[in-house]
Amino acid sequence: MPDALDVTPYDALLLLSFGGPEGPDDVVPFLENVTRGRGIPKERLKEVGQHYFLFGGVSPINEQNRVLLEALREDFAAHGLDLPVYWGNRNWAPYLTDTLRDMVRDGRRRVLVLATSAYASYSGCRQYRENLADALATLRAEGLEPPRVDKLRHYFNHPGFVEPMIDGVVEALAGLPEDVRSGAHLAFTTHSIPISAADTSGPAPEHGDGGAYVRQHLDVARLIADAVRERTGVDHPWQLVYQSRSGAPHIPWLEPDICDHLEERHAAGVPAVVMAPIGFVSDHMEVLYDLDTEATAKAAELGLPVRRSATVGADPRFAAAVRELIAERAAVERGQRITPCALGALGADHDVCPVGCCPARTARPAAAGADSPYA
Ligand SMILES: CC1=C(CCC(=O)O)c2cc3nc(cc4[nH]c(cc5[nH]c(cc1n2)c(C)c5CCC(=O)O)c(CCC(=O)O)c4C)C(CCC(=O)O)=C3C
Ligand SMILES: [Fe+2]
């Protein structure tokens, strides 16, 4: 038996994710949930609905989260961490509010949240904090005492997140035909967001020039590219590119898009490309459709050999990283001094989002941050 791992004052972990449809009848209501009040053009919604229908109306994200939950429970049990793990989503069942209600009924008072988004941005951080505030408000309106909710820091540069992606890129390179392998370029991809959202991502002093969102991705891309060079002995040129753009065409979003990038690399005589989706924690629909379907078809049309590297998913190293992050944060809450674990040039990100971090276009209450209206 391992020694018990003390994570006082926390009494539960909540895996907080996006949610996705689990069959054809779920697709339209799911997209309505996602886009409520967001002003996404109807045309784009129809198109994205088609992506889901192409896969039987099933997003891989829920199953990925179920597997991650199992991996977390196994890792915790093997390391003496007796912490119940719950799961709730922003846009599909199990819904966050229902899960939090269950948690309160189970007597949980100090909840630590793991969001399935590794980087700073409104969509990947504050929007989840707004969802938490909404859920807490609902519980309070029902006469329940809301628990205290904290959010784990961004883990983009944690070795347990980066190392599985290094392996993935090395494997993807090995999967390319030998004659083009050493000349392959690496295209690190993430979700495009409006440039205005990128520029205001992270704490206010870091705003501008792509903000924390772009800087964090560049740091991860550089870490992976450096490690791949060490492992393979080949210096593969790399670039950070974007995918899954939505919104109105006249609003500028981060570019270049992966498909344009493949075209440009092909025209420049690059013999092969590895697409590495560092912006996604697991195989989401964006990975399955935008990369494995659309970008791969574009590459085939060009005659450009491509491979897509694996996402982290439920890698045991990631589960271990979550346990380490919980233990770190619990120690901080107990007033102990720790050295947080992080790779790269940026260092460990903040534990508590400061006021003005990743602001919304229209200010709304957000929990688990310095501006939280909850304790
Ligand atoms: C940064 C970021 C992440 C990564 C961080 C994180 O993981 O949280 C992410 C994840 C995800 N996004 C997802 C799905 C969608 N996102 C949309 C729309 C948007 N995403 C945005 C950004 C992000 N999104 C933005 C700025 C919009 C525009 C509208 C708005 O300002 O809100 C739309 C509407 C249609 C469309 O426009 O595509 C859908 C269906 C799914 C589920 C996939 C599945 O089912 O497997 C996941 C994991
Ligand atoms: Fe999205």
UniProtKB/TrEMBL annotation:
The record's HAMAP family line, in alphabetical order, gives: Ferrochelatase
Q: Per its record, how is this protein called by name?
A: Coproporphyrin III ferrochelatase
Location, primary (coarse class): cytoplasm
Q: Which UniProt keywords apply?
A: Cytoplasm, Heme biosynthesis, Iron, Lyase, Metal-binding, Porphyrin biosynthesis
Q: Which PANTHER family match?
A: FERROCHELATASE, FERROCHELATASE, MITOCHONDRIAL
E.C. no? 4.99.1.9
Give the Pfam families listed for this entry.
Ferrochelatase
Residues the entry annotates as binding Fe(2+): H191, E286
What SUPFAM superfamilies does UniProt report for this protein, alphabetically?
Answer: Chelatase
